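Exam revision sheet. Question 4 asks you to relate a sequence to its structure. Input first:
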Amino acid sequence: RRRRRRRGRRLHPALDPRLFFPLMKLLYSLSRGSWGEKKCSAQTTTRRRALLASRRDSTRATGLEMSSAWAKYLARGADPIEVASYSYPKKYLIGGNWKSNGTKSSVSKLVKGLNEAGPIPPWVEVVVGVPSVFIPEVVATIRKDVSVAAQDCSETSYGAYTGETPAEMLKEFGVTWVILGHSERRTNQKESSALVLAKTKAAIAQGLKVMVCVGETLEEREAGKIDAVILDDHMAALKAIPEKDWASIAIAYEPVWAIGTGKTASPEQA
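Answer key, structure tokens:
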């Protein structure tokens, strides 16, 4: 009898689900305005459509409509759906500078070795710095997912500048990167940070990407001049670069005392 009495009790109108939820819905709509619910539903519909479209595009990647780029990844064993659906938080840049080395035969062997190497992950960009005389051959024969960089360019354009290589010429031959401010050129050719800045601007103006090299000598490190050399000199000159152009610049830190000496900078030193 007690149970029947409890079940038979009438709930307070404010706690009755038949009245409570419609009341809360009314209060919610009043608090957001009459347009709030419609706006939310429209946004939700847009998100759903975008999600369905992305899934549909990913599914098509496995069919006959697969693009040539995905076909290449698939041929190397990569899953196009996995590549397309995952957004990589960071892209790594791996550069190799050949300096003034190589003959026609050795360069051909080196390119052949790179072409026969394993697949390059989509979150990694590989660049080789090639001596200028070998640029046409390497651009024509190296695999398409390896970019070619020049080891220098001039701050001038076409004209009476004997021995200089303008960025326009490099671009015409398929070069996409250029190495500027290398410590060997700063030391041997006495290149200043102001000159490196001028070259950087010239390269970016032609659509090239730039690796700007910075680094201190052993004497400068031991004298406690690291900040004065790298921040106040090498990097300070680059402050004149517009913010929109920094997407085309990579800062390559390599201390001079670690070049060709067998020593390497630790993560803490870098």
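Marking note for examiners. The beta strands are 92-97, 124-130, 146-150, 177-180, 209-214, 249-253.
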